[in-house]
Amino acid sequence: MSKIRPLLSALFNHRLTSGRNRGLSKFCCMMSEGSRDEQTVKLLKRANEENEDSAEGVQVTKRIKTEGEATEDEKKYPKKKVVLLLAYSGKGYYGMQRNPGTAQFRTIEDDLVTALIKSGCIPENHGEDMKKMSFQRCARTDKGVSAAGQVVSLKLRLIEDIIEKINEHLPPQIRVLGLKRVTQGFNSKNNCDARTYSYMLPTVALSPKDYDTGNIAAFRLSPETLQKVNHLFALYKGTHNFHNFTSQKAPNDPSARRYITEMSCGEPFICSNTEFAVITVRGQSFMLHQIRKMIGLVIAVVKGYAKEEVMERSWGQEKVDVPKAPGLGLVLERVHFDRYNKRFGGDGLHERLEWDQEEEAIKAFKEAHIYPTIVETECQEGSMVSWMSTLPIHDFEATAADTRDDKDQKQDNADVRNDSD
Protein backbone atom coordinates (compact mmCIF):
# COMPACT_ATOMS: atom_id res chain seq x y z
CA MET A 1 0.00 0.00 0.00
CA SER A 2 2.89 2.25 0.83
CA LYS A 3 4.34 1.49 -2.63
CA ILE A 4 1.08 2.17 -4.41
CA ARG A 5 0.46 5.56 -2.72
CA PRO A 6 3.56 7.27 -4.25
CA LEU A 7 2.54 5.91 -7.66
CA LEU A 8 -1.01 7.31 -7.35
CA SER A 9 0.37 10.63 -6.15
CA ALA A 10 2.81 10.77 -9.07
CA LEU A 11 -0.01 9.86 -11.48
CA PHE A 12 -2.27 12.55 -10.00
CA ASN A 13 0.44 15.21 -10.16
CA HIS A 14 1.18 14.24 -13.74
CA ARG A 15 -2.50 14.63 -14.75
CA LEU A 16 -2.76 17.91 -12.90
CA THR A 17 0.37 19.19 -14.52
CA SER A 18 -0.79 17.93 -17.92
CA GLY A 19 -4.17 19.61 -17.39
CA ARG A 20 -2.49 22.81 -16.40
CA ASN A 21 -0.16 22.58 -19.37
CA ARG A 22 -3.08 21.89 -21.72
CA GLY A 23 -5.04 24.79 -20.19
CA LEU A 24 -2.00 27.04 -20.37
CA SER A 25 -1.37 25.86 -23.90
CA LYS A 26 -4.99 26.51 -24.80
CA PHE A 27 -4.86 29.95 -23.10
CA CYS A 28 -1.55 30.72 -24.78
CA CYS A 29 -3.04 29.57 -28.06
CA MET A 30 -6.04 31.85 -27.50
CA MET A 31 -3.72 34.66 -26.49
CA SER A 32 -1.59 33.95 -29.50
CA GLU A 33 -4.65 34.07 -31.77
CA GLY A 34 -5.86 37.19 -30.00
CA SER A 35 -2.41 38.67 -30.32
CA ARG A 36 -2.35 37.82 -33.99
CA ASP A 37 -5.77 39.40 -34.40
CA GLU A 38 -4.62 42.49 -32.55
CA GLN A 39 -1.49 42.62 -34.59
CA THR A 40 -3.57 42.31 -37.74
CA VAL A 41 -5.86 45.11 -36.57
CA LYS A 42 -2.87 47.22 -35.69
CA LEU A 43 -1.28 46.57 -39.05
CA LEU A 44 -4.52 47.42 -40.89
CA LYS A 45 -4.97 50.50 -38.74
CA ARG A 46 -1.41 51.54 -39.39
CA ALA A 47 -1.89 51.01 -43.12
CA ASN A 48 -5.07 53.09 -43.07
CA GLU A 49 -3.35 55.79 -41.08
CA GLU A 50 -0.48 55.76 -43.53
CA ASN A 51 -2.96 56.03 -46.41
CA GLU A 52 -4.75 58.89 -44.65
CA ASP A 53 -1.46 60.57 -43.90
CA SER A 54 -0.47 60.09 -47.50
CA ALA A 55 -3.76 61.55 -48.75
CA GLU A 56 -3.49 64.36 -46.23
CA GLY A 57 0.05 64.93 -47.37
CA VAL A 58 -1.14 65.24 -50.96
CA GLN A 59 -3.84 67.70 -49.90
CA VAL A 60 -1.37 69.69 -47.82
CA THR A 61 1.08 69.65 -50.74
CA LYS A 62 -1.66 70.85 -53.06
CA ARG A 63 -2.75 73.47 -50.54
CA ILE A 64 0.82 74.67 -50.04
CA LYS A 65 1.28 74.75 -53.80
CA THR A 66 -1.94 76.75 -54.29
CA GLU A 67 -1.02 79.11 -51.50
CA GLY A 68 2.41 79.41 -52.99
CA GLU A 69 0.95 80.26 -56.35
CA ALA A 70 -1.39 82.83 -54.77
CA THR A 71 1.55 84.31 -52.93
CA GLU A 72 3.56 84.54 -56.15
CA ASP A 73 0.56 86.14 -57.87
CA GLU A 74 0.14 88.63 -55.07
CA LYS A 75 3.84 89.40 -55.12
CA LYS A 76 3.57 90.20 -58.80
CA TYR A 77 0.26 92.08 -58.47
CA PRO A 78 -0.10 93.09 -54.80
CA LYS A 79 -3.56 94.05 -53.51
CA LYS A 80 -3.52 97.62 -52.30
CA LYS A 81 -6.08 100.11 -51.03
CA VAL A 82 -6.77 102.67 -53.75
CA VAL A 83 -9.36 105.14 -54.95
CA LEU A 84 -10.67 105.27 -58.52
CA LEU A 85 -11.90 108.48 -60.13
CA LEU A 86 -15.02 107.62 -62.15
CA ALA A 87 -17.00 109.52 -64.75
CA TYR A 88 -20.25 108.23 -66.23
CA SER A 89 -23.42 109.20 -68.00
CA GLY A 90 -26.34 107.91 -65.94
CA LYS A 91 -28.83 107.58 -68.77
CA GLY A 92 -30.13 104.00 -68.95
CA TYR A 93 -28.83 103.09 -65.48
CA TYR A 94 -30.74 102.67 -62.24
CA GLY A 95 -28.28 104.68 -60.18
CA MET A 96 -24.75 104.03 -58.96
CA GLN A 97 -25.13 101.41 -56.23
CA ARG A 98 -25.35 97.72 -56.98
CA ASN A 99 -28.61 96.09 -55.86
CA PRO A 100 -28.16 92.31 -55.41
CA GLY A 101 -31.10 90.29 -56.66
CA THR A 102 -32.29 92.99 -59.07
CA ALA A 103 -30.34 92.11 -62.21
CA GLN A 104 -33.02 93.68 -64.41
CA PHE A 105 -32.13 97.08 -62.92
CA ARG A 106 -28.61 97.66 -64.26
CA THR A 107 -26.42 100.01 -62.23
CA ILE A 108 -23.03 101.66 -62.76
CA GLU A 109 -21.43 99.37 -60.18
CA ASP A 110 -22.68 96.28 -62.03
CA ASP A 111 -20.61 97.23 -65.08
CA LEU A 112 -17.66 98.42 -62.99
CA VAL A 113 -17.39 95.17 -60.99
CA THR A 114 -17.62 93.11 -64.19
CA ALA A 115 -14.77 95.14 -65.68
CA LEU A 116 -12.65 94.72 -62.52
CA ILE A 117 -13.06 90.93 -62.69
CA LYS A 118 -12.40 90.65 -66.43
CA SER A 119 -9.29 92.83 -66.17
CA GLY A 120 -7.91 90.66 -63.35
CA CYS A 121 -7.98 93.40 -60.71
CA ILE A 122 -10.12 91.37 -58.31
CA PRO A 123 -10.97 87.65 -57.91
CA GLU A 124 -14.31 86.55 -59.33
CA ASN A 125 -15.80 85.78 -55.89
CA HIS A 126 -15.30 89.41 -54.86
CA GLY A 127 -18.00 90.35 -57.34
CA GLU A 128 -20.62 88.50 -55.29
CA ASP A 129 -19.51 89.96 -51.98
CA MET A 130 -18.13 93.47 -52.43
CA LYS A 131 -17.11 93.64 -48.77
CA LYS A 132 -14.24 91.31 -49.63
CA MET A 133 -12.60 94.16 -51.55
CA SER A 134 -13.67 96.84 -48.99
CA PHE A 135 -15.68 98.61 -51.71
CA GLN A 136 -17.27 101.98 -50.91
CA ARG A 137 -18.57 104.81 -53.05
CA CYS A 138 -18.67 108.52 -52.13
CA ALA A 139 -22.20 109.12 -53.33
CA ARG A 140 -25.08 106.87 -54.35
CA THR A 141 -26.27 108.77 -57.39
CA ASP A 142 -29.91 108.29 -58.29
CA LYS A 143 -31.47 106.81 -61.42
CA GLY A 144 -30.37 108.72 -64.54
CA VAL A 145 -27.92 110.92 -62.61
CA SER A 146 -24.44 111.35 -64.11
CA ALA A 147 -21.02 111.93 -62.53
CA ALA A 148 -17.83 113.63 -63.63
CA GLY A 149 -15.96 113.13 -60.34
CA GLN A 150 -17.28 110.09 -58.48
CA VAL A 151 -14.69 108.42 -56.23
CA VAL A 152 -14.78 104.81 -55.00
CA SER A 153 -12.35 103.15 -52.58
CA LEU A 154 -11.43 99.46 -52.76
CA LYS A 155 -8.64 96.89 -52.56
CA LEU A 156 -7.42 95.57 -55.89
CA ARG A 157 -4.40 94.05 -57.60
CA LEU A 158 -2.16 96.71 -59.07
CA ILE A 159 -1.77 95.12 -62.48
CA GLU A 160 0.20 96.81 -65.25
CA ASP A 161 -1.65 99.49 -67.26
CA ILE A 162 -4.50 99.07 -64.83
CA ILE A 163 -6.65 102.04 -65.91
CA GLU A 164 -6.45 101.10 -69.59
CA LYS A 165 -7.27 97.44 -68.88
CA ILE A 166 -10.31 98.31 -66.75
CA ASN A 167 -11.60 100.72 -69.39
CA GLU A 168 -11.25 98.03 -72.06
CA HIS A 169 -14.12 96.19 -70.38
CA LEU A 170 -16.33 99.24 -69.72
CA PRO A 171 -18.92 100.78 -72.05
CA PRO A 172 -17.96 104.21 -73.48
CA GLN A 173 -20.31 106.03 -71.10
CA ILE A 174 -18.35 104.83 -68.03
CA ARG A 175 -14.67 105.64 -67.61
CA VAL A 176 -12.00 105.31 -64.94
CA LEU A 177 -10.04 108.57 -65.22
CA GLY A 178 -7.62 108.29 -62.32
CA LEU A 179 -6.20 106.11 -59.54
CA LYS A 180 -4.41 106.99 -56.29
CA ARG A 181 -3.06 104.96 -53.37
CA VAL A 182 -4.68 105.71 -49.99
CA THR A 183 -4.28 104.65 -46.37
CA GLN A 184 -5.39 101.14 -45.38
CA GLY A 185 -8.37 102.37 -43.36
CA PHE A 186 -9.58 104.87 -45.97
CA ASN A 187 -13.33 104.88 -46.70
CA SER A 188 -14.46 107.11 -49.55
CA LYS A 189 -17.86 107.77 -47.99
CA ASN A 190 -16.76 108.39 -44.40
CA ASN A 191 -13.66 110.38 -45.33
CA CYS A 192 -15.57 112.63 -47.72
CA ASP A 193 -16.09 116.15 -46.30
CA ALA A 194 -18.37 117.53 -49.01
CA ARG A 195 -19.91 116.88 -52.40
CA THR A 196 -20.47 119.31 -55.27
CA TYR A 197 -23.28 118.74 -57.77
CA SER A 198 -24.37 120.64 -60.85
CA TYR A 199 -27.80 120.71 -62.43
CA MET A 200 -28.16 121.66 -66.10
CA LEU A 201 -31.63 122.81 -67.11
CA PRO A 202 -33.32 124.72 -69.95
CA THR A 203 -33.97 128.25 -68.71
CA VAL A 204 -37.59 127.97 -69.81
CA ALA A 205 -38.03 126.16 -66.49
CA LEU A 206 -37.68 129.61 -64.87
CA SER A 207 -40.22 131.30 -67.17
CA PRO A 208 -43.53 132.73 -65.84
CA LYS A 209 -46.23 130.09 -65.44
CA ASP A 210 -48.28 131.55 -68.28
CA TYR A 211 -45.41 131.37 -70.80
CA ASP A 212 -46.08 129.32 -73.95
CA THR A 213 -43.84 126.26 -73.51
CA GLY A 214 -44.43 125.34 -77.13
CA ASN A 215 -41.76 127.89 -78.06
CA ILE A 216 -38.87 126.87 -75.80
CA ALA A 217 -36.11 128.02 -78.14
CA ALA A 218 -37.33 131.63 -78.04
CA PHE A 219 -37.11 132.02 -74.25
CA ARG A 220 -34.30 134.04 -72.72
CA LEU A 221 -33.67 134.41 -68.99
CA SER A 222 -33.62 138.04 -67.85
CA PRO A 223 -30.90 139.34 -65.45
CA GLU A 224 -33.65 140.25 -62.96
CA THR A 225 -35.02 136.70 -62.90
CA LEU A 226 -31.51 135.25 -62.54
CA GLN A 227 -30.93 137.58 -59.59
CA LYS A 228 -34.15 136.41 -57.95
CA VAL A 229 -33.21 132.78 -58.54
CA ASN A 230 -29.86 133.28 -56.83
CA HIS A 231 -31.51 135.10 -53.93
CA LEU A 232 -33.73 132.04 -53.35
CA PHE A 233 -30.85 129.59 -53.68
CA ALA A 234 -28.85 131.61 -51.13
CA LEU A 235 -31.59 130.92 -48.55
CA TYR A 236 -30.56 127.26 -48.54
CA LYS A 237 -27.07 128.07 -47.20
CA GLY A 238 -26.36 126.91 -43.67
CA THR A 239 -27.91 124.05 -41.70
CA HIS A 240 -31.60 123.31 -42.17
CA ASN A 241 -34.05 120.50 -41.50
CA PHE A 242 -34.64 119.01 -44.96
CA HIS A 243 -37.16 116.34 -43.93
CA ASN A 244 -39.57 117.69 -46.58
CA PHE A 245 -36.93 117.33 -49.29
CA THR A 246 -36.68 113.55 -49.18
CA SER A 247 -38.99 110.61 -48.48
CA GLN A 248 -39.99 108.90 -45.25
CA LYS A 249 -38.06 111.19 -42.90
CA ALA A 250 -39.69 112.34 -39.68
CA PRO A 251 -39.36 116.05 -38.78
CA ASN A 252 -37.51 115.14 -35.58
CA ASP A 253 -35.04 112.81 -37.32
CA PRO A 254 -31.53 114.26 -36.68
CA SER A 255 -30.27 112.84 -39.98
CA ALA A 256 -32.58 115.23 -41.88
CA ARG A 257 -30.43 118.20 -40.83
CA ARG A 258 -27.99 118.96 -43.64
CA TYR A 259 -25.34 121.64 -44.12
CA ILE A 260 -25.23 123.57 -47.43
CA THR A 261 -22.22 125.76 -48.14
CA GLU A 262 -22.96 127.01 -51.65
CA MET A 263 -25.84 127.15 -54.13
CA SER A 264 -26.16 129.41 -57.17
CA CYS A 265 -27.16 129.56 -60.83
CA GLY A 266 -24.62 130.58 -63.46
CA GLU A 267 -25.04 132.75 -66.54
CA PRO A 268 -27.21 131.22 -69.28
CA PHE A 269 -25.76 129.93 -72.57
CA ILE A 270 -27.12 128.65 -75.89
CA CYS A 271 -26.86 124.99 -76.84
CA SER A 272 -28.73 123.41 -79.80
CA ASN A 273 -30.74 126.64 -80.22
CA THR A 274 -32.03 126.33 -76.65
CA GLU A 275 -30.94 128.40 -73.68
CA PHE A 276 -29.55 126.43 -70.72
CA ALA A 277 -28.09 127.33 -67.34
CA VAL A 278 -26.14 125.37 -64.73
CA ILE A 279 -26.96 125.38 -61.02
CA THR A 280 -24.14 124.48 -58.63
CA VAL A 281 -24.64 123.22 -55.08
CA ARG A 282 -22.09 122.12 -52.51
CA GLY A 283 -23.00 120.48 -49.21
CA GLN A 284 -21.67 118.13 -46.61
CA SER A 285 -24.01 115.37 -47.78
CA PHE A 286 -27.38 114.98 -49.45
CA MET A 287 -30.38 112.70 -49.00
CA LEU A 288 -32.33 110.89 -51.70
CA HIS A 289 -33.92 113.44 -54.09
CA GLN A 290 -32.88 116.37 -51.84
CA ILE A 291 -31.16 118.43 -54.53
CA ARG A 292 -33.91 117.85 -57.07
CA LYS A 293 -36.51 118.97 -54.55
CA MET A 294 -34.46 122.04 -53.57
CA ILE A 295 -34.38 123.05 -57.23
CA GLY A 296 -38.03 122.07 -57.76
CA LEU A 297 -39.25 124.34 -54.95
CA VAL A 298 -37.26 127.34 -56.22
CA ILE A 299 -38.68 126.83 -59.72
CA ALA A 300 -42.21 126.73 -58.26
CA VAL A 301 -41.57 130.04 -56.45
CA VAL A 302 -39.96 131.76 -59.46
CA LYS A 303 -42.80 130.67 -61.76
CA GLY A 304 -45.40 132.01 -59.32
CA TYR A 305 -46.97 128.77 -58.09
CA ALA A 306 -45.73 129.27 -54.55
CA LYS A 307 -44.74 132.18 -52.30
CA GLU A 308 -41.22 132.68 -51.00
CA GLU A 309 -42.31 132.00 -47.41
CA VAL A 310 -42.91 128.34 -48.30
CA MET A 311 -39.16 127.80 -48.21
CA GLU A 312 -38.89 128.83 -44.57
CA ARG A 313 -41.97 126.78 -43.76
CA SER A 314 -40.51 123.70 -45.48
CA TRP A 315 -37.72 123.56 -42.85
CA GLY A 316 -40.26 123.51 -40.01
CA GLN A 317 -42.10 120.62 -38.40
CA GLU A 318 -45.11 120.52 -40.69
CA LYS A 319 -45.37 118.51 -43.88
CA VAL A 320 -44.98 120.62 -47.03
CA ASP A 321 -45.64 119.44 -50.58
CA VAL A 322 -42.27 119.96 -52.33
CA PRO A 323 -42.05 119.15 -56.07
CA LYS A 324 -39.12 117.09 -57.36
CA ALA A 325 -37.37 118.29 -60.52
CA PRO A 326 -36.35 115.69 -63.17
CA GLY A 327 -33.13 113.77 -62.58
CA LEU A 328 -31.78 114.19 -66.12
CA GLY A 329 -29.65 117.32 -65.56
CA LEU A 330 -28.08 116.31 -62.23
CA VAL A 331 -24.32 115.62 -62.25
CA LEU A 332 -21.97 114.74 -59.37
CA GLU A 333 -19.13 117.13 -60.20
CA ARG A 334 -16.64 116.62 -57.40
CA VAL A 335 -16.12 115.08 -53.97
CA HIS A 336 -13.90 116.74 -51.39
CA PHE A 337 -11.41 115.26 -48.91
CA ASP A 338 -10.09 118.34 -47.13
CA ARG A 339 -9.47 116.70 -43.73
CA TYR A 340 -7.75 113.67 -45.29
CA ASN A 341 -5.54 115.91 -47.42
CA LYS A 342 -4.60 118.01 -44.41
CA ARG A 343 -3.66 114.96 -42.34
CA PHE A 344 -2.02 112.69 -44.92
CA GLY A 345 -1.47 114.78 -48.05
CA GLY A 346 1.77 116.30 -46.83
CA ASP A 347 3.34 113.33 -45.02
CA GLY A 348 5.50 112.36 -47.98
CA LEU A 349 3.93 108.90 -48.19
CA HIS A 350 0.44 109.54 -49.51
CA GLU A 351 -0.96 111.55 -52.40
CA ARG A 352 -3.43 114.36 -51.97
CA LEU A 353 -6.88 113.40 -53.23
CA GLU A 354 -7.07 116.13 -55.82
CA TRP A 355 -7.45 115.62 -59.54
CA ASP A 356 -5.80 118.62 -61.18
CA GLN A 357 -3.95 116.44 -63.70
CA GLU A 358 -7.21 114.74 -64.68
CA GLU A 359 -9.14 117.99 -65.25
CA GLU A 360 -8.72 117.87 -69.02
CA ALA A 361 -9.95 114.25 -69.15
CA ILE A 362 -12.92 115.16 -66.93
CA LYS A 363 -13.82 118.10 -69.15
CA ALA A 364 -13.48 116.00 -72.30
CA PHE A 365 -15.73 113.27 -70.88
CA LYS A 366 -18.44 115.78 -69.91
CA GLU A 367 -18.38 117.35 -73.35
CA ALA A 368 -18.47 113.96 -75.09
CA HIS A 369 -20.95 112.02 -72.94
CA ILE A 370 -22.73 114.04 -70.25
CA TYR A 371 -23.70 117.41 -71.75
CA PRO A 372 -24.80 116.02 -75.15
CA THR A 373 -26.96 113.38 -73.41
CA ILE A 374 -28.67 116.02 -71.27
CA VAL A 375 -29.25 118.43 -74.14
CA GLU A 376 -30.36 115.82 -76.70
CA THR A 377 -32.65 113.99 -74.25
CA GLU A 378 -34.20 117.26 -73.08
CA CYS A 379 -34.78 118.49 -76.63
CA GLN A 380 -36.20 115.13 -77.78
CA GLU A 381 -38.20 114.06 -74.73
CA GLY A 382 -38.92 117.40 -73.04
CA SER A 383 -38.69 116.02 -69.50
CA MET A 384 -38.50 119.48 -67.91
CA VAL A 385 -41.51 120.82 -69.83
CA SER A 386 -43.51 117.69 -68.97
CA TRP A 387 -42.60 118.08 -65.30
CA MET A 388 -43.55 121.77 -65.33
CA SER A 389 -47.10 120.79 -66.30
CA THR A 390 -47.44 118.94 -62.96
CA LEU A 391 -46.66 122.01 -60.80
CA PRO A 392 -50.32 123.24 -60.62
CA ILE A 393 -51.25 119.90 -59.01
CA HIS A 394 -49.09 120.61 -55.94
CA ASP A 395 -50.69 122.41 -53.01
CA PHE A 396 -48.10 124.78 -51.56
CA GLU A 397 -50.42 126.53 -49.12
CA ALA A 398 -51.93 123.72 -47.06
CA THR A 399 -50.09 121.33 -44.79
CA ALA A 400 -50.06 118.09 -46.74
CA ALA A 401 -50.58 114.85 -44.82
CA ASP A 402 -49.71 112.84 -47.90
CA THR A 403 -47.90 114.74 -50.63
CA ARG A 404 -47.90 113.90 -54.30
CA ASP A 405 -44.27 112.77 -54.15
CA ASP A 406 -45.06 110.45 -51.22
CA LYS A 407 -47.70 108.81 -53.39
CA ASP A 408 -45.09 108.31 -56.09
CA GLN A 409 -42.57 106.84 -53.64
CA LYS A 410 -43.42 103.23 -54.51
CA GLN A 411 -42.35 103.93 -58.08
CA ASP A 412 -39.18 105.62 -56.81
CA ASN A 413 -38.34 102.58 -54.71
CA ALA A 414 -38.91 100.32 -57.70
CA ASP A 415 -36.50 102.47 -59.71
CA VAL A 416 -33.63 102.78 -57.22
CA ARG A 417 -33.05 102.12 -53.54
CA ASN A 418 -30.52 104.79 -52.55
CA ASP A 419 -30.34 107.32 -49.73
CA SER A 420 -28.54 110.18 -51.45
CA ASP A 421 -28.50 112.03 -54.76
Describe the model.
With 421 residues, the protein is an alpha+beta fold. The chain is built from 11 helices and 10 strands. It has helices at 4-76, 108-118, 162-168, 223-234, 290-303, 309-314, 338-344, 359-381, 383-388, 404-407, 409-415; strands spanning 79-88, 136-137, 146-157, 174-181, 194-202, 238-241, 257-265, 269-271, 274-283, 330-336. Helix 2 (108-118) packs across helix 3 (162-168) and helix 4 (223-234) crosses helix 5 (290-303). The N and C termini lie far apart (128 Å).
Could you list some keywords that capture this structure?
alpha+beta, about 20% strand, single chain, disordered C terminus, 11 helices, globular, about 425 residues, 10-stranded mixed sheet
> How many beta strands in the DSSP annotation?
10
Distance between the termini: 128 Å
**Percent of residues in beta strands?**
15-25%
Helicity range: 40-55%
Radius of gyration: 38 Å
User: What class do helices, strands and sheet pairing give?
Assistant: alpha+beta
Biggest sheet details: 10 strands, mixed
Number of helices: 11
Q: Calculate the mean pLDDT score and round it.
A: 83
Shape verdict:
globular
Low-pLDDT residue intervals, each spanning 5 or more residues: 1-37, 49-69, 409-419
Following the backbone from N to C, one meets helices and strands in this order, namely HEHEEHEEHEEEEHHEHHHHH
